[in-house]
Amino acid sequence: MQHSASVALVHEELVHLVRQLMTGERSDVDTPTFAQHSVLSYIDRNPGCRATQIADAFGVHRSTVSRQIKSCVDSGWVSADIGPVRSGHPLTLTRDGARTLDAANRSRQAEVADRVRDWPTDDVDTFARLLHQFRSTASPIPDNPTRGGDPNA
To answer: Which of 11, 40, 43, 89 could form a disulfide with 80 if both were Cys (CB 3.0 to 4.6 A apart)?
Structure first.
């Protein structure tokens, strides 16, 4: 089945959506960026993880993750525990980090709720189902751990 015109439109909308997510404005300094939010979420789901694990899950270079972790540590959201330097420091959320992540989750969910406020419930349910279907039917990632193997990252 050929969908070339529709596929081009879907691609264009996804590019715009990702740009909005990546460059979206923060309401204040105490609100994490999208990248920081992603790091905080990963650490919350994987307490004690290391920067290398996050880099592998996100499919990015460790230096990229290290910059985000440093900003999260400097903001008081993440604690880098003592550990062997070679394997990296175990990371955990601080109490402030857990509160910040919770507030960011509520804020971003409120933004989604605002965007679909006038949609019929069936449309919102269909949209969620189709997004999940689209994400779940992605081409398999080759056996390369640095290509973003964590679907929740």
So the answer is: 89
